[in-house]
Design brief:
Elements (H helix, E strand, L loop, with lengths): L6 H8 L5 H12 L1 H4 L4 H7 L4 H10 L5 H13 L15 H22 L2 H13 L3 E5 L2 H15 L4 E2 L4 H7 L8 E5 L6 H12 L3 E7 L4 H5 L2 E5 L13 H20 L1 H17 L2
Parallel strand pairs: 1-2, 1-3, 3-4, 4-5
Protein name: MurR/RpiR family transcriptional regulator
InterPro entries: Homeodomain-like_sf (IPR009057), HTH_RpiR (IPR000281), RpiR-like (IPR047640), RpiR-like_SIS (IPR035472), SIS_dom (IPR001347), SIS_dom_sf (IPR046348), WH-like_DNA-bd_sf (IPR036388)
Keywords: DNA-binding, Transcription, Transcription regulation
């Protein structure tokens, strides 16, 4: 990104779950973002009829380093061109329109996910994966498909990667892990019960833990040592399975994998070549 952004998307994601005073500040910022970028903490507190302490608490609730980072992100948002809103698909719409709308939704959630990811968190996750003896990925439903995609990628990179869809089998694999192994938990809501139990068991067994959830505080993101976030934009009401959320999760897995390949290129590229050759031999 040429400039840091994502402040408004973060606020929209969590505004309804914030305490009253922080919610007032968030709504004030969302209503007049252009004016907030030049304000001090005191001025924002006065404008939103709250307190300076509440402004600081809001920044902490957003997991930001401080008010300056919030202002920088909002300033980046203000500089960007406004994008189309997410939209549900209605009965009787043309295939042409559905193609355009789903494409727009996909582009938007990927861009918002870029804004939610912290560079330092991604770097730490990549280093943790490199140091791990084995990688265990777990998710339920559409998130399970994302976990399976991660397994396929890291297997081809020469890593021991496991993804078992059955929760009992997945829990069983954690009984023989080593402390440098890593568990990657995937859940859009961050509240999927089976994934919570999986992460708790992983931590109990001393594993390093990484989560991929929507932005905001959740049980899974709080349990994980390294929380990675996607956009928290809600899915369309009519759907047979996750669409935008799955795309965002796959995007995070792709970022982790490509960063891993780039950082450890010499040791990974040989494994990738061997796996490609093995597949080509079967054709």
């Amino acid at each position: 990104m040429a400039y840091i952004s994502g402040g408004l998307a973060m606020l929209r994601s969590v505004v309804n779950s914030l305490p009253t005073s922080e919610q007032k500040i968030a709504n004030y910022i969302l209503s007049t973002p252009e004016t907030v970028v030049t304000m001090t903490v005191k001025q924002l507190a006065e404008g939103s009829k709250t307190s300076s302490a509440a402004v600081i608490r809001l920044c902490k609730s957003l997991d930001l380093k401080g008010f300056q980072e919030l202002k920088m992100r909002i300033a980046g948002d203000v500089q960007k061109q406004s994008s189309a809103e997410y939209r549900d698909i209605n009965e009787g719409e043309s295939v042409h329109h559905i193609i355009g709308q789903m494409t727009q939704n996909g582009i938007q959630i990927i861009k918002e996910t870029e804004e939610m990811l912290r560079l330092e968190d991604v770097e730490e996750a990549v280093a943790t994966i490199h140091e791990a003896g084995s990688i265990h990925l777990f998710g339920i439903g559409a998130s399970g498909l994302v976990a399976a995609d991660g397994q396929q990628k890291f297997l081809r990179a020469g890593r021991y990667a496991f993804c078992l869809q059955d929760p009992h089998m997945a829990y069983t694999t954690l009984s023989n892990v080593k402390e440098n192994d890593v568990a990657i938990a995937v859940s859009f809501s961050g509240e999927t019960n089976e994934v919570i139990q999986y992460l708790r068991l992983a931590k109990k067994n001393g594993m390093k833990t990484i989560s991929i959830t929507k932005y905001g505080s959740s049980t899974i993101s709080q349990l994980a040592e390294i929380p990675l976030y996607t956009s928290a934009t809600q899915e369309a009401m009519i759907r047979s399975a996750a669409t935008s959320s799955r795309l965002a999760q796959l995007h995070v897995v792709d970022i982790l994998f490509m960063s891993y390949v780039s950082n450890y290129y010499e040791e990974v590229v040989e494994s990738l070549d061997r796996s490609r050759a093995a597949i080509d031999e079967q054709k």
